[in-house]
Amino acid sequence: MGKKKRTIFWIIPIAILGIFVYFFGPKDTITDNEYIDYMKAATLTSDSPLTTEVAFSNVCEKGGWEYFETKMLDRVVEYKGECTVDGKLEPVNVQFIVEKDKSSHIIGAMLVNTVQQTDEQRDAFIQSLNK
Question: How confident is the model over 63-107, as pLDDT tens digits?
């Protein structure tokens, strides 16, 4: 009976750890879904003549789109690429928060070379894409 108890004491924590990793572990990157398609076709701002995809492709290289949901169930589409910022080619991440019904979006955080930019810096970059 002693060996059975020791075996159970090992199986239960391993099972709990496995369940935790399954639900909260790393997820596959989503690079193709309806929210990404919406963001690519949407305009950056209301007065912009260009779609988001065209605007980024004019200034950025090696770009890609990713989708994820936050813990607060916000739907986030993120553009990652190497873009010209202040005359230099820098790695850039720009996040867009998309409404569930895909009726609108908000421009979220922007990172340049892993450093978060201020709202003013982000807005200046977005305006430079519209040219």
Answer: 899 999 888 888 999 999 999 888 888 999 999 999 989 888 999
Residue 93 inside a domain? The answer is yes
* Closest listed residue to residue 98, CA positions, set 22, 21, 7, 30: 30
Q: How many domains does the chain have?
A: 1
Residue 16 is assigned to a structural domain of this protein: no
Q: pLDDT tens digits, residue range 6-40?
A: 677 777 778 888 787 777 766 667 767 899 999 99
Q: What is the pTM of this model?
A: 0.75
For residue 28, what are the CA distances in angstroms to 31, 34, 65, 91, 122? 9, 17, 14, 22, 28
- Residue 94 covered by a domain: yes
- The phi and psi torsions of 13 (rounded to 5 degrees) equal -65, -35
Cβ atoms within 10 Å, residue 50: 16
